[in-house]
Design a protein that fits this description.
binds hydroxy diiron-OXO moiety, about 180 residues, about 0% strand
Length: about 180
Amino acid sequence: MLNEKITAALNDQIELEANSSATYLAMASWCDKEGLGGCAQFFYAQSDEEREHMLKIVHYMNEMDGHAIIPAQKLPQSEYDSIQEVFKMVYAQERHVTQSIHSLLNLSQEANDHATILFLQWYVAEQREEEALMREILDKMKLIGTGGQSLYYIDKELDKINKNRLAAEAAADPSAPVA
Ligand code: OFO
């Protein structure tokens, strides 16, 4: 059984994950429009992942005899100044999500809610990976710079990340599609 505070905080987390999913989908669409196919593919996959994060909480809450509330969709930003701006926004968003997961964990520890503490461990690890990946991408962008063919090389880097991700998924699940 989830207490009231944890129920409210988990529902807020559902909203945060849903908004991340919509934001990343909007970014994917912008990248597609800009001819950045590698970046677009990256964000379509990120958007799917965020929806999965949201669904995991929905299922967990309902399994715990709680009630997951599905939030209204906020209108995501649809235009961006540059791909560098996009990734800076993503990094800030992921850091915000991490803080929110950590607050949820603190709340669960205060309530001695061991099931929720255990449930949140997956999110702690996921956020650590996500932040590290976004930092890696931002570092690569800095190295590439903003010169003439920089967009071409940035998109190629993202393509590489997409291929590595698909290969890792295929290794974990042999029935998953391969690049
Ligand atoms: Fe679910 O927010 Fe990042 O991964």
